[in-house]
């Protein structure tokens, strides 16, 4: 039996009653986090541009756009909301990218359209994480190939497709067709043209929005009888080759003994996950000694090759450049700028922020690069050593190699709720904030998902 067939059968055997309580609870945590990121992200240029693009197309009012008083056709709602969830780079991360930003907007868009309840949404979201994360992990290329070509968000098409298939109650044959359709319209492995060598980082960056829309599209087509390859993941000409990889671990892809959703991390900072251990090291230094930014002579960051090669930019063209800048992230953190406001031009363009950023230098530490590769390039296990030199010559040093927000250092319940409240404070009333928290916390009791989306 091929991997495509095994995945489809796994989905058809999955039921809400078989889900462990801890998996259900963590699914609700991830949904609330995505909603917060999406509401705030709708206020960024990325959120505004994708919304205006979708508005110009025109469509039936089926599913809500978070942060707006508008509904659109479900595929477009998935696209717009996914763009907003990932806009701040504050959304969850897994072993192959940002799974929640593709899976959750797709699932909520269809659940709202079809008047489904909380249990249906939970089951769909979990199926999306389980399918998408396994495929992403199984096709991860070797380091040599990774440096030449790799995708970010590519395999997430299958995650949003799996969630959509559950909500549309696709039959087994329709599900197999949906795999083929989804794979054929999945985005290319574009990370080589992420924008590192251009004037600015691409707004597409992690490419989560097209996979969200494509997964919904694939299942709606399959439901109508549209045919796709029923063995799309399989063999020497399978999806892994199309995605630019040089390997595929089919045993890993079809090993369903554990729930991959439990390996997903939340983010305590609105920037690329690869920067987080560096910021954690800064945070630890701030806790030991009050560091006044104006007293800093320079900061040296010793870490892995990609950070040294690409993440040292201090000449920023957009807020997305800020999300991938170690120097600017450190400056924003040391000046204690509120996290949801990092993307605002008045902050990342602030002369004092940029002056401090120019004092930060990111350098390669060979042994850290070796550790990084040996840990399968896990973005929450990036070694980072910090040296902060103050005026007068005093030196502060810190080190971290396990990112906060990861399963090894999880955010507290208070921290997670505080993040949601901070992200939605500009858009939702306090009453609406607490009502959303209450409904998602008790999601299995919600009869219709529009009880939540109407509050957004």
What's a quick, concise take on this entry?
With 456 residues, this protein is an alpha+beta fold. Helix content is 50%, strand content 7%. The chain contains 22 helices and 6 strands.
The main β sheet shows up as: 4 strands, mixed
Question: How many domains in all?
Answer: 2
**Helix amount:** 40-55%
Strand order of the largest sheet: 4-3-5-6
CATH class (first level) name of the largest domain: Mainly Alpha
Give the helix tally.
22
Q: State the secondary-structure class.
A: alpha+beta
**In percent terms, what proportion of residues is strand?**
5-15%
Annotated CATH topology of the largest domain: 2-methylcitrate dehydratase PrpD
Give the total of beta strands. Answer: 6
Q: Which CATH architecture of the largest domain? A: Orthogonal Bundle
> Rg to the nearest angstrom?
21 Å
Element string (H = helix, E = strand): HHHEEHHHHHHHHHHEHHHHHEHEEHHH
What is the CATH superfamily classification of the largest domain? 2-methylcitrate dehydratase PrpD
Mean pLDDT: 96
Taken from the alpha-carbon principal axes, the silhouette is: globular
Distance between the terminal alpha carbons, to the nearest Å? 44 Å
What low-confidence regions span 5 or more consecutive residues with pLDDT below 50? Answer: none
